[in-house]
Amino acid sequence: MNKEIAIIEPNTLAGLGLQHLLQQMMPAVTIRHFGSMQQLTDDTPDMYGHYFVASSVYFEHASFFLQRMPRTIVLTSGGVAPGLSDVNTLNVNQSEQALTRDILRLHSRGHGHNHRPTLATEHDLSPREIEVLVLLTRGYINKEIAARLNISLTTVISHRKNITEKLGIKSLSGLTIYAVMRGYVEPYEL
Question: Distance between CA 119 and CA 182 in Å, rounded?
Answer without folding.
Answer: 10
